[in-house]
Amino acid sequence: MKHHASEVHVLAAAYALNALEADEREEFAAHLAGCESCRQDAADFEATAARLAAAAAEVPPTVMKQRTMATLDHIRQLPPRVPTASPVSFRGLLRRKAVPLALAASLAAAASFAGLAAWQNQEKRQLEQQARQSERRLDDVSTVLAAPDARTVHGRASNGAFTTVVASDRQNKAVFTATGLPAPATGKTYQLWLDHGGSMRPAGFIGQDGTVLIDGDTAGAGAVGLTLEPAGGSPQPTTTPLLLMAIRA
Hints:
Structural class: alpha+beta
Oligomer: single chain
Number of domains: 3
């Protein structure tokens, strides 16, 4: 498929995500040979996609095995067998007591295993939910990166972190990526903001290095801000912005 010369520049994100048809990819690869701007955009999108893949990976909790083993320690065992050489009267007594004792032990073991199974099912459901949420976030971010009107802006926060915003007006979405962002102090969090005509609106959080989907109406925003706020966030910035980056020409 042939594209007008003014349109081919918007294919950098789709090229980086392998979202082009074979003929389109061949055409854009030829275009890259003579366009430094598109080569840089494609490289930025590929780097962002790699960070997204790492951020979306889900690792089972390390405490799962410890909890499972600890639960097994509390499962009652069946009573030991009585030697056949015991006196007849004693064997008779044991026969009368063995059935209720074994039944009680079996019921206790069954209850313990049932509790363990329920806990494991709950852990599984939580992991599956986390995986689905990560997949949805990755889909949303990929949609922005592959949007035909996606534009990329780079910046640097006052604490030294490198930042990138990729925005799409058609999707009314944007993603924020940070590299080299120091861990916040205890009780603090990094909060994102959208500047709408001088009014700063909350736009989500980022814990440290990584990529997040910005919350809110990005199509009408002129800039993205980043501040360090108390844990849980603030309705308005309470500290000097670490970053206030224009996302429009």
